[in-house]
Amino acid sequence: xxxxxxxxxxxxxxxxxxxxxxxxxxxxxxxxSPATAIASLELRPxxxxxxxxxxxxxxxxxxxxxxxxxxxxSAADALRGHGLQPRExxxxxSVPDGYWVYVEDLKDATARRKVISTLNAAGMKDAAxxxxxxxxxxVGVFSDQKHxxxxxxxxxxxxxxxxxxxxxxxxxxxWLDIELKxxxxxxxxxxxxxxxxxxxxxxxxxxxxxxxPAKGAGG
Length: 219
Hints:
Elements: H1 2-22, H2 26-31, H3 34-39, E1 59-66, H4 69-80, E2 87-103, H5 109-121, E3 128-129, E4 137-142, H6 145-157, E5 162-180, H7 203-206, E6 208-211
Antiparallel strand pairs: 1-5, 1-6, 2-4, 2-5, 3-4
């Protein structure tokens, strides 16, 4: 009996060894091989993106102001004669246009008619209600301050409170924008037509060379 037990034990040990080390599935052996797993990966270099050629550096300068398109075109022609390529740019602005006398804070049409009637009777025939400012009555625009002050004094003597202010007129001003290389000097204003006289005399005092306005901004 004892010999039978030992024989069966030896048989079990032999079978376990055969199953553990000899009869192992092939796919497990392959999967466990680190060399096989690493060999399946392949690293390839990423191609470098093409480098675009750098654009030449320039800076923008504005020349002006010119009160009308004719003078701006004449100056542009002069700049083209020096090998430059100006771009014309128009800017809406306002300039002093004399002195304005008016009466304000007239809340209704009755008050405005009363003021106009009184001023007209005193000889101020240019008194009129403002079309865009319903609470004001204009009593005249004057080219010099002396006459404007005299008119304001006349209005005050009639019991009203006049206002004297600088009158503004909307105008379109032209500028010329040019692109210059870093080492390229600014154009000399004296070589351009004078905005006031149409000649080259005194242009250095009338025309300025400044930086171009930022994108989206006025000049």
